[in-house]
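Batch manifest, entry 17 of 40.
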Amino acid sequence: MSECIRVAVLISGSGSNLQALIDGEKAGELPIEIACVISNRPDVRGLERAREAGIEAVTLDHKGFTSREDFDRALAETIDSYQPDLVVLAGFMRILTPEFTGRYLGRMLNIHPSLLPKYQGLHTHQRALDAGDSEHGVTVHFVTAELDGGPSAIQAVVPVLASDDATTLAARVQQQEHIIYPMAVRWFAEGRLSMADNLALLDGEPLPPQGYQVRSSFV
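Output type: structure tokens
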């Protein structure tokens, strides 16, 4: 696929993964056009990153809606107005309704800071430490109605060090996030990554449950 695909990026905070995608697009490494960045929280750093890059930045404050369903409907209308080929959740801290996830099934990716299916939800780094895990990491996965439960596309594995606390472990994992999220987006844009029958496919072949796995010896 030689033409650029249109991407909508959803954020709730600083947008460091958004920045990795912006940098990849600007460098010509990602065949994408980030059509819009949408935040459910006003005045976050990620919106500034979008504006600095000349990308349309939109705030849709969830606090202005009386229900999750109403917010998701308004969010879908906003996304659809930009006609994206792919929706990327980059630190978007909202539990999405099945109606919303079904609307973008197979063309919405999320990144989650654990080796899914381990540690769905919050506080993943501390949970990995509390469990005494020797390895931790991050997963890019397709979004389904199950929270952090869609098929995995790619994982980066990092060692857990004896000296780690949740902050140091999170920082090391985040470095890998900025590598594998652009990889997954590039694969999708090139037509290599897809989803069918609740499986992630790379070049038409089903990926294992953990997805394509990258192991990092970085300490």
